[in-house]
Design a protein that fits this description.
CATH architecture of the largest domain: 3-Layer(aba) Sandwich
Low-confidence stretches: none
Largest sheet: 7 strands, mixed
Mean pLDDT: 86
Number of helices: 8
Oligomer: single chain
Distance between the termini: 58 Å
CATH class of the largest domain: Alpha Beta
Strand order of the largest sheet: 10-9-8-11-12-14-13
């Protein structure tokens, strides 16, 4: 990083219905930091940081992408944004101010790596340095996955065997799985940056010996799994459904998230046709998390 280089922060106010899609767009662009905050009204504020020299190119691309989102979601208000100029010395502190320790479910606490958070008795601490990967626990799709895992383990209905995490991002779900008792988690992501970040977060949480992170999609996975985690889009879920059916053990569970409530019935029917049954359903705001078991033949 060049001393005194100029930076900009773009604060985007967006309907939570398509916040994850916009976050993925920002991650694909690059930049040096992405913060996420939820307002009392349920809107998402994404704050993205990048060098000022990229301003013109980025804002033009962002405007076109927001127009596309407005066409896809005509029932929602168009996202708005504002730009702030920053000096080199304060941009990092700016984006970090959005990521504070967060309670998720009954026991999980998600804390940034730079916070000296001391967990209370019974709490499960996950330290995360998000870098440019998605998954800090602040988005409902991630939080619902963690809550579903916690419920699953508490119920005793799922054996604590090897797990598979599709689209691992920061590795937050894999780390949570290990801390709940799953002995080994295989993580897959098609983004090389996410693979690197997930590996670092596994080390940060002292669970690297239990987590293996690989670049690739579900086609590189083999064996059988007691638990499959998939916080990905509905389209990606349908593309990977047959492989999940092949990889899950008869007594295992599949937790899928990243689903809009209006897409829920379609996803339930899709998995039912592949001999899955619905074990549990969690919903919050516009988001849905489904836990499936596999019918034994």
């Amino acid at each position: 990083m060049i001393l005194q280089e100029k930076w900009i922060g773009i604060k985007i106010r967006v309907n939570s219905v398509y916040a994850e899609a916009l976050a993925n767009f920002l991650l694909e662009w690059g930049g040096e930091g992405l913060g996420e905050d939820i307002t009392e009204e349920g809107e998402t504020i994404l704050t993205f940081y990048l060098p000022a020299k990229e301003r013109e190119a980025f804002l033009g691309t962002l405007g076109r992408y927001l127009d596309d989102l407005a066409d896809l979601f005509p029932e929602t208000e168009r996202a708005t944004f504002q730009v702030e100029e920053l000096e080199n010395e304060d941009w990092g502190a700016k984006w970090r101010e959005y990521f504070k320790p967060l309670q998720v479910g009954k026991r999980f606490v998600i804390a940034p790596s730079w916070e000296n958070y001391e967990p209370n008795q019974g709490e499960i601490l996950i330290k995360i340095d998000p870098g440019m990967a998605f998954g800090t626990g602040h988005h409902q799709s991630t939080a619902l996955c963690l809550e579903a895992m916690e419920d699953l383990v508490s119920s005793g209905d799922c054996p604590l065997g090897e797990a598979l995490d599709l689209g691992t991002g920061t590795g937050i779900l894999a780390i949570g799985a290990v801390k709940l008792g799953f002995p080994k988690v295989t993580c897959l992501d098609i983004d090389p940056q996410a693979v690197e970040i997930a590996q670092k977060n596994a080390q940060l949480n002292e669970v690297a010996s239990c987590i293996s992170v690989h670049l690739g999609d579900i086609t590189v996975a083999d064996g059988s799994y007691a638990l499959i985690l998939a916080n990905i889009t509905s389209k990606a879920l349908k593309e990977n459904g047959a492989s999940m059916a092949r990889l899950i053990r008869p007594s295992g569970r599949v937790i899928v998230s990243g689903i809009l409530i209006k897409e829920g019935q379609e996803i339930k029917s899709f998995f039912a046709r592949r001999d899955f049954y619905l074990w549990r359903e969690l919903a919050r705001d516009e988001w849905l998390c489904l836990v499936f078991g596999r019918e034994e033949k």
